[in-house]
Each structure stands twice: as C-alpha cells, then as structure tokens.
Amino acid sequence: MAKLHVELVTAEGRVLSQEADFVVAPGSAGELGVLPHHIPLLTTLRPGEVMVRNEGVEEYLFVSGGFLEVLPDRVVILADAAERADEIDLARAEAARRAAEEALSARASDAEAAAKLERALYRLRVAEVRRRRRSHEQHL
Ligand code: ATP
User: Fold this and answer.
1) Which CATH number is 89-139's, of 1.20.5, 3.10.50, 1.10.3210, 2.115.10?
2) How high is the pLDDT of residue 131?
3) How far apart, in whole angstroms, are the C-alpha atoms of residue 76 and residue 10?
4) Confidence band for 140, pLDDT divided at 50, 70 and 90
5) Mean pLDDT of the chain
6) Predicted local confidence at residue 129, as pLDDT
C-alpha cells in the first residue's frame, strides 16, 4: 500500500521522521486529513494536535503553529514548537495556563496572553488525551 513520509521539524531539530498511512494536522482553515496521493498543498497551521497513524499505531503531538506542505508521497511540517504527547510537561503547561489567565484578567485585550493560553490549553488537551488512551489500553 502507498505510504507517506512524514517529517516534523522545528528550529531546534527533527521531532519526527517516519512512514505513515494517514496524518491529521490543525490547518488554519480547519483540520486537515492527509492520505497518500493527496493533491499538493501548502498551508499555515494553528496551535493544536497532529496525529500520525502507521500500521494502526497512532502518535499524537502538540504543534504551536507553523507550516504544512503536502506532496503526493510526503508531508512536511515546520512547526514553531512541537512536542510528542508523552513529552509534554503538564506542570509547565498548567503554569503557563494560569499565567496567561492572570494576564488576561488584568487586560482582556492582551493578544499575546490569549495566544499563550491557547497553546497551554492544547498542550494540556494533547497530554490528557494521550494519558486517557494509555489507561484505556491498560484496561483492555
Ligand atoms: P508558551 O509561550 O507556549 O507557553 P514557552 O514560552 O514556555 O511556551 P517556547 O519559547 O515557546 O516556550 O518554547 C521553548 C521550548 O520549550 C520549545 O522546545 C517547546 O517545545 C518547549 N515547551 C514549551 N512548553 C512546554 C511544555 N509544557 N512541555 C514540554 N515542552 C514545552
């Protein structure tokens, strides 16, 4: 069966490089699902979750935003920041959420704090979903 080669890189280095059957990413215009032979496209990403599925195994990651390029046999994600779900530091994301909420309660129009809050909430969500899936698997 046809495969995609997925590369996810940040300025700090390569976060993921693997074969995949299906990739889902948070495109700015909406969630984007990519199968092999997808039409080529280039889009910006908003903060959210990236899912990479290969042979039934799913990997979940947080991306803070960036660019996504799709070619028929390849997906390239250039992210501002990215972490695998199990690498997300929950205490750090929780502290970032609290700090952003405090900044927003002082000044509701603080766009930087709003963006920080959005990143923190997605980090918490990606990490939380990952933990729930793992405990579900342990109970099977
Ligand atoms: P933010 O503004 O999104 O709260 P930050 O300012 O603390 O993040 P960045 O400068 O965006 O941090 O990123 C620095 C590095 O820290 C990046 O490699 C990013 O992937 C990582 N990082 C940020 N938050 C977390 C987290 N909660 N868990 C794990 N890694 C994180």
Assistant:
1) 1.20.5
2) 73
3) 11
4) low
5) 94
6) 79
How much is the pLDDT for 134? Answer: 72
Burial of 38 (0-12, 13-18, 19+ CB in 10 A): middle
In the reported structure, the alpha carbon of residue 109 is separated from the centroid of ligand 1 by a whole-number distance in angstroms of 22
Any residues with Cβ below 6 Å from ligand 1, and which?
Answer: 12, 64, 81, 83, 87-89, 92-93, 96, 116, 119-120, 123
Q: Residue 100 class from Cβ within 10 Å (0-12 exposed, 13-18 middle, 19+ buried)?
A: buried
Stated pTM of the model: 0.93
In CATH, the architecture of 4-85 is: Sandwich (2.60)
Q: Which of 89, 98, 125 to mutate to test the pocket of ligand 1 (most atoms within 8 A of CB)?
A: 89
